[in-house]
């Protein structure tokens, strides 16, 4: 065992590090963890932190049992499966704020592009950090080519403010009050007050949390239906932190039900009054608010379908090895499962390597992290997921070479 001297270089310095390996054995697995030596220069990076576990069918009461350092149910991501096939696949990466969602999403996108997939990486997080992660300006709400990967990689930062404005323009005219205008536009003005129980006023005037995200995703779906976007075979979403995701999951159903009720009501009133209108020659021809609402509802239904499609979509949970982050991930996993959203993989990011130095702080921190890994292994929600361990590297992960480096460690 010895020390590691550097990780991701940004200059042409060549650096190397030495090798450390720990072998742990518990009731049914052997785990090897270590930092392999690597040499690097500005254009290429190789090796890094590895972990590998080999399953053994040992009896549970084996006397050789040692406290596990990290015994994931599977230590590799199964990237072969993720990359295989040319049909379009969507990967949504989500988790608690600051755990590394953007870094993992960007590194996955780079890996897909370098593996031959024209790839689109989309940020639906209101606090975008794709531009920072790629060290390129990707703002503007349009497709922007990312320079560096072998195959086309484009990024899209959806502006939630704009998406919300669009939504508001459906419901508000001339600065009026949303629900009143909307109902007037639908010929339901006099009923507006009696529809309080539908909570539509609240919904349209103060959009619920999660709506931004739903609109952003529906916008991407809308984009993807156009010719320009046909080429993409992998779409990676860098999503907003957990809270938004959870609210987003229930939102399409809520909108669908509310808008559905309103549209049904309108239909009833329209048919009751159409006879009178035709007598007086006042048949409506303009595209009214209900058409726009209907389109919004269709888009929400598509968001819901996308989230539930096991063949094309997967939600990957990112966490860090702390008790708080693990608890939140467990709740997220439970909610995703309850909503039938496919989830198979869990990334535990920012793991400290086994320390070779006598840094007390590092040793304590790593002990804490190992405790969190133990909790994951005993967690009914998380233990069944494929656990991918990603090391904490000693410099900030920024730019395509650094993302490639991270991606080659995480996505194997
Ligand atoms: N494995 C890692 N090793 C070292 N630094 C990392 C690692 N993963 C992420 N980071 C750093 O941690 C910070 C937060 O990462 P990132 O922006 O990817 O998180 P996030 O979950 O997307 O955050 P937010 O919730 O704010 O969008 C960044 O500075 C990133 O470079």
From TrEMBL:
SUPFAM superfamilies: P-loop containing nucleoside triphosphate hydrolases (SSF52540). The keyword ATP-binding applies. NCBIfam families: GET3_arsA_TRC40 (TIGR00345). PANTHER family: ARSENICAL PUMP-DRIVING ATPASE ARSENITE-TRANSLOCATING ATPASE, ATPASE GET3B. This is ArsA/GET3 Anion-transporting ATPase-like domain-containing protein. Belongs to the arsA ATPase family. Residues 89-409 form the ArsA/GET3 Anion-transporting ATPase-like domain. GO terms for biological process: tail-anchored membrane protein insertion into ER membrane. Keywords: ATP-binding, Coiled coil, Hydrolase, Nucleotide-binding, Transit peptide. It catalyses: ATP + H2O = ADP + phosphate + H(+). Residues 279-306 form a coiled coil. GO terms for molecular function: ATP binding; ATP hydrolysis activity. GO terms for cellular component: GET complex.
């Amino acid at each position: 065992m010895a020390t590691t001297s550097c990780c991701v270089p940004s200059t042409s310095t060549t650096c190397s590090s030495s090798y450390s390996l720990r072998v742990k054995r518990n009731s049914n697995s052997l785990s090897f963890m270590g930092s392999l030596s690597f040499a690097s220069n500005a254009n290429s990076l190789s090796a890094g932190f590895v972990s590998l576990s080999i399953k053994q069918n040992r009896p549970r009461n084996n006397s050789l049992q040692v406290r596990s350092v990290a015994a994931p149910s599977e230590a590799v991501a199964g990237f072969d499966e993720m990359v295989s096939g040319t049909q379009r696949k969507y990967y949504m990466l989500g988790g608690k704020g600051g755990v590394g969602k953007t870094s993992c999403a960007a590194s996955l996108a780079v890996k897909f592009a370098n593996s031959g997939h024209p790839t689109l990486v989309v940020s639906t997080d209101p606090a975008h950090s794709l531009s920072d992660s790629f060290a390129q300006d990707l703002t503007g709400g349009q497709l922007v080519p990312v320079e560096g990967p072998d195959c086309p990689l484009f990024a899209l930062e959806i502006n939630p403010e704009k998406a919300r404005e669009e939504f508001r323009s459906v419901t508000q005219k001339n600065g009026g009050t949303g629900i009143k205008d909307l109902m007037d536009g639908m010929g339901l003005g006099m009923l507006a007050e009696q529809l309080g129980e539908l909570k539509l006023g609240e919904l349209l005037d103060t959009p619920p949390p999660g709506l931004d995200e739903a609109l952003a995703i529906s916008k991407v779906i809308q984009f993807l239906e156009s010719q320009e976007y046909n080429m993409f075979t992998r779409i990676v979403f860098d999503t907003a932190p957990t809270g938004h995701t959870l609210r987003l999951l229930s939102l399409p159903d809520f909108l669908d039900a509310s808008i559905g009720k309103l549209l049904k009501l309108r239909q009833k009133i329209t048919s009751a009054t159409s006879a009178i209108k035709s007598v007086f020659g006042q048949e409506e021809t303009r595209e009214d608010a209900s058409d726009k609402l209907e389109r919004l509802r269709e888009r929400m239904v598509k968001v819901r379908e996308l989230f539930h499609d096991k063949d094309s979509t997967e939600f990957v949970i990112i966490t860090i090895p702390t008790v708080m982050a693990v608890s939140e991930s467990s709740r997220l996993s439970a909610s995703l499962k309850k909503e039938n959203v496919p989830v198979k993989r869990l990334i535990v990011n920012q793991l400290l390597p086994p320390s070779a130095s006598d840094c007390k702080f590092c040793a304590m921190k790593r002990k804490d992290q190992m405790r969190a890994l133990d909790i994951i292994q005993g967690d009914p929600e998380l233990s069944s997921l494929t656990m991918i361990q990603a090391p904490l590297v000693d410099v900030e992960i920024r730019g395509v070479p650094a993302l490639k480096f991270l991606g080659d460690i995480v996505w194997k």
